[in-house]
């Protein structure tokens, strides 16, 4: 059973319709077909092969009954006049009911099974009372359908700026989304009056070649990238997508147009020139700079590593000067209590080597640390307390060379 693609209705919907085995139809012939809404007049576009059907998104189905006859043409003109009368009556009822809606068009199917009214509205409209009035007046099934501004142009527009019939009223079965990004990629003017269609929105034709432009742009280095060509290194300033070329600024501030086949490598922004890589692959990664080796402190010959100066001060405790003063009562009684001093280690005998004690080996000496010399002097004063109570009470500082 042969199948054909048929366009029908005022919204110019597409469907795949089957025909009887002995019937053959050519492109452009008008036929009477049975659709989901009833009998309608349609136009045959082509035979519905497997390839054609794979390009269509959920097409409607139906059956071609016969070719349109002259009597069908007369009936069609009568139906069109009746649809205009229905639209005028509906507009008067909308004004009387005070509904916030704008009636655009009315359609009556060929068999008279229903009438469809198309309208524009910003919000949801309660038109139940309107439907009752229309059904009572025309004695048929009433269908209200809300549309957008692009659908309005599809119903009412005729020719576009290019001089041909508008796309939405000829071959487009759907309304694809169009964005300003598509116009920028194709280097189209950004003047809204020149890139807008009859509906006031961006032209649908801006989307036709967008996928091709995007695929070709992927083969070019991006704007701002550093590239290496056979003539030297430079920076990409602009792209010519259709020509497959880029505008490059060289290191000596010259601007030249380079073909994409002459680009040897593409480097990230700010990277120094390295070995050439394929322009479709990843850019060459620069060698990592040599990291300086961490310096290690030499091990101590007598034991573990010596502690830092701050650790040594923390172990010695606070300075002995505030603790060298003795109170008058302690000095007078001579009770044997010594003034509190810092906890310091006693001086080991000369015969005992300090190598056996790691703590003693790590302690600083008076020869290489002045602070240690003061601590040693304070320790000697604690071993031999002064007998002059007046000098102790007055807070005199003990001398490093005092003897008992």
H/E series: EEEEHEHEEHEHHHHEEEEEHHHHH
Point out poorly predicted stretches.
272-284, 322-340, 343-374, 377-404
Question: Distance between the terminal alpha carbons, to the nearest Å?
Answer: 133 Å
Shape: elongated
Count of extended strands: 13
Strand arrangement within the widest β-sheet reads: 1-2-5-3-4
| Beta-strand content | 15-25%
Helix content: 25-40%
Overall mean pLDDT stands at 75
Structural class by helix and strand composition: alpha+beta
What is Rg? 49 Å
For the report, how would you describe the main beta sheet? Answer: 5 strands, mixed, barrel
Please tally the helical runs, counting DSSP H or I stretches of 4 or more residues: 12
Q: Can you offer a commentary on this structure?
A:
The protein is of the alpha+beta class. Helix content is 27%, strand content 21%. It has twelve helices and 13 strands. The protein has helices at 50-54, 70-97, 128-138, 149-156, 180-185, 192-195, 210-218, 309-316, 328-333, 358-362, 370-383, 389-393; strands at 3-8, 13-18, 30-35, 38-47, 60-67, 102-108, 114-120, 141-146, 226-229, 232-240, 245-250, 255-259, 263-267. A five-stranded mixed β-barrel has the order 1-2-5-3-4. A five-stranded antiparallel sheet has the order 12-11-10-9-13, with no helix packed on it. Strand 10 (232-240) and strand 11 (245-250) form a beta hairpin. Helix 2 packs across helix 3. The longest helix is centred in the first third of the chain and has 28 residues, at 70-97. The model is unreliable at 272-284, 322-340, 343-374 and 377-404 (pLDDT under 50).
């Amino acid at each position: 059973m042969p199948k054909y693609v048929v366009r029908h209705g005022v919204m110019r919907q597409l469907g795949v319709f089957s025909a009887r085995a002995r019937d053959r139809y050519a492109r452009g012939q008008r036929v009477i077909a049975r659709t989901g809404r009833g009998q309608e007049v349609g136009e045959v576009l082509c035979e519905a092969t497997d390839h054609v059907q794979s390009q269509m998104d959920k097409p409607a189905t139906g059956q071609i009954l016969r070719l349109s006859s002259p009597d069908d043409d007369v009936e069609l003109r009568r139906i069109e006049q009746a649809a205009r009368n229905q639209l005028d009556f509906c507009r008067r009822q909308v004004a009387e009911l005070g509904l916030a809606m704008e009636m655009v068009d009315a359609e009556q199917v060929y068999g008279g099974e229903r009438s469809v009214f198309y309208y524009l509205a910003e919000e949801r409209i309660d038109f139940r009372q309107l439907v009752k009035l229309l059904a009572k007046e025309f004695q048929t099934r009433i269908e209200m359908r809300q549309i957008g501004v692009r659908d309005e142009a599809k119903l009412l527009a005729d020719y576009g700026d290019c001089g041909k019939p508008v796309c939405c009223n000829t071959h487009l079965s759907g309304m694809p989304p169009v964005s300003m990004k598509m116009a920028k990629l194709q280097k189209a003017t950004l003047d809204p009056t020149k890139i807008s269609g009859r509906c006031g929105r961006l032209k649908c034709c801006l989307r036709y070649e967008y996928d091709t432009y995007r695929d070709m742009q992927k083969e070019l280095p991006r704007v701002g990238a550093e590239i290496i060509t056979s003539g030297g290194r430079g920076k990409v300033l602009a792209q010519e997508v259709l020509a497959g070329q880029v505008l490059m600024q060289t290191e000596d501030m010259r601007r030249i147009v380079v073909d994409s086949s002459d680009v040897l490598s593409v480097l990230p922004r700010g990277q120094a020139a390295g070995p050439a890589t394929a322009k479709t692959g990843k850019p060459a990664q620069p060698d990592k700079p040599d990291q300086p080796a961490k310096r290690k402190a030499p091990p101590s010959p007598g034991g573990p590593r010596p502690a830092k100066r701050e650790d040594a001060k923390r172990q010695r405790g606070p300075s002995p000067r505030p603790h060298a003063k003795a109170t008058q009562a302690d000095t007078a009684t001579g009770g044997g209590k010594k003034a509190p001093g810092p906890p310091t280690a006693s001086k080991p005998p000369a015969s005992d080597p300090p190598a056996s004690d790691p703590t003693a080996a790590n302690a600083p000496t008076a020869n290489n640390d002045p602070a240690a010399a003061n601590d040693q002097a304070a320790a000697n004063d604690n071993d031999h307390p002064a007998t002059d109570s007046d000098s102790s009470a007055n807070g005199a500082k003990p001398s490093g060379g005092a003897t008992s």
